[in-house]
Amino acid sequence: MSVGDVAVRAAGVWKRYGGGLTQVDALAGVSADFGKGRFTAIMGPSGSGKSTLLHCLAGLDKPSDGKVFLGDVDLTTLPEKQLTHLRRDRIGFVFQAFNLVPTLSALENITLPLDLAGRKPDQDWMTTVVDTIGLMDRLRHKPSELSGGQQQRVACARALVSRPDVVFADEPTGNLDSRSSGDVLDFLHRSVREFNQTVVMVTHDPTAASYADRVLFLADGQLQSELVDPTAETVLDAMKQLETQQDTADELAG
Ligand SMILES: Nc1ncnc2c1ncn2[C@@H]1O[C@H](COP(=O)(O)OP(=O)(O)OP(=O)(O)O)[C@@H](O)[C@H]1O
C-alpha cells in the first residue's frame, strides 16, 4: 500500500503491562496498514490484544515501543493536548456500550462532538447520515426511548458526523441481537462504500467480520494471518485454525 493510501499505520507496536513475574506483552511487535476507504476487522481469541491495538491506533493509549501514524502524524510523540484535539477532530468512536448521553435527544447526541468543538454541522452531510441510519422519525427521542440497535446507530451517526479520518469500533454489535447487529453493520458498510469512510472494527463475531474488506487475526499480541474479502465461513475456519495452533503451542509449552 502506498503511503497516500494509508489512513492509519502501526509500525512495530509493543504494549507491555506490569513487570517481573506479572509482566504481560499485550502487543508484541504489531505492524499493519489500514487503507483509506477500507473496512478492516480485527479478530483473535480473548486476551490476544485486540482492544489494546485499537486503543493504540486511536491514540487512546500509548505504545511502550513502536509508532502509530494517523496519515503522516506520529501519535506516539504528539503532546497530550494536541492528541486530544486530534482525537476530537479526526477520529470517530463507537463502543460496545453505546455511550450516549441519557439526558440528550438522539439528534443532540449526534451533534454533540461538533457542539463541543464549536463547529456547525454541515446540513447536507447531517441529512445524509441521519437518512442512512434510518431514524429520521426518532431524532427527538432520548436514548432510553430507543432500542439497543437504534441507540448504536445513533452512536455510529455521532462518530461519522464530523467526517473523521477513521472510525474505530470496539465490539459495536457485542450487546445487540442479530437483526440489530445487521442494521449497525450495514450502516458501517455503507459508510465505507458510499462515503469512502475508513472503519477499523474489533469483533468476536465471524458474521460481523464478514462485512469487512479484510480481517486481521491476532494471537498472543502478534498478527498471525489475514483474510481479504472474508465470508463468515472463511473467518470461522481461520479462527478455528488459530485456536488449534494455540492449543498445540500450549501443549508444547507444557
Ligand atoms: N491495564 C492492563 N494491565 C495489565 N494487563 C492488561 C491491561 N489491559 C490489558 N491487559 C492484558 O493484555 C492482554 C490483551 O488484552 P486485550 O484487552 O487487548 O485483549 P482482547 O483481545 O481485546 O481481549 P477480549 O477479546 O477478551 O476483549 C490480556 O492478557 C490482558 O489481560
| Small molecules bound | adenosine-5'-triphosphate
Strand line-up of the largest beta sheet: 6-7-8-3-9-10
Arithmetic mean pLDDT:
92
Which regions contain 5 or more consecutive residues with pLDDT less than 50? none
- CATH superfamily, by name, is P-loop containing nucleotide triphosphate hydrolases
What's the structural domain tally?
A: 1
CATH class categorisation:
Alpha Beta
Query: What structural class is derived from the secondary structure elements?
Result: alpha/beta
Features:
254 residues, four-stranded antiparallel sheet, Rossmann fold, single chain, nucleotide-binding, alpha/beta, 8 helices, 10 strands, binds adenosine-5'-triphosphate
Outline:
The chain has 254 residues and is α/β, with parallel strands linked by helices. It contains eight helices and ten strands. The protein has a single domain, classed as Rossmann fold (3-Layer(aba) Sandwich).
Characterization of this structure:
This protein has 254 residues and is α/β, with parallel strands linked by helices. It has a single domain (38-57, 80-252), classed as P-loop containing nucleotide triphosphate hydrolases (Rossmann fold, 3-Layer(aba) Sandwich). The protein is built from 8 helices and 10 strands. The protein has helices spanning 50-57, 80-90, 106-116, 123-133, 148-160, 178-195, 206-209, 232-252, and strands spanning 6-17, 24-35, 39-43, 65-70, 73-74, 91-95, 166-170, 199-202, 214-219, 222-228. The strands form 2 sheets. It has a 6-stranded mixed beta sheet, sandwiched between helices. The protein has a 4-stranded antiparallel beta sheet with strand order 2-1-4-5, covered by helices on one side. α5 runs parallel beside α6. It starts with 5 loop residues before the first strand and ends with a helix. Bound molecules: adenosine-5'-triphosphate (ATP).
